[in-house]
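As the work plan foresaw, the team has encoded backbone shapes as discrete tokens. One protein thus recorded appears below exactly as we store it.

:::
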Amino acid sequence: MQGASVCRAHGGTAPQVQRKAAARVTEARARAAATTYGLPRDVDPATALLEEVHRTAGHVAWLAAKVAELQEDELAWGLVEEHEKAATQSPGTDTKQAARPNVWLDLYQRERAHLVRVSKAALDAGVNERLVALAEQQGTMLGEIIRRSADALLAEVANLLDDTTADQVRREWPDWIARIVPAQIAAVTGDHP
């Protein structure tokens, strides 16, 4: 029987087994809707941790939206059991409701806890420090590119000027570059002075 751990002949028709089976099916459907699995790929552990933080944050946001769609009474009160009765004096549907957390709320709380765990793991692994070091390396490389480009530009400009003006530009050039390069590096790394 779907969602049950026993067959019909061994207790699968018992009301408590059917309730638990229905809850498992509902939770499995909700979890499948919240999680998409991909194919294996090569990834370093730091990147995997950071991706899991981002992915889990996305799951939390999506589940928060699902929880926000619920009516207030649906958060802790909901359908537990439903039976169709046709061969009785009053045919129809019997429903049983109970106070318990909605499956979307439960998944939301679990995913939030997972986000805290993976965020802590990423911090403990020094992922932030690695990102800062990478940004610093990129900034240094950009600074070197700017310096080399500026030196090439200086050589071209100096050829067009008279000797006195060219000497003055060469003397002031390092100060100009010193003011420009840190601002450009900060723009790339996001580290504004």
In short: The radius of gyration is 32 Å. Residues 127-160 form the longest helix (34 residues).
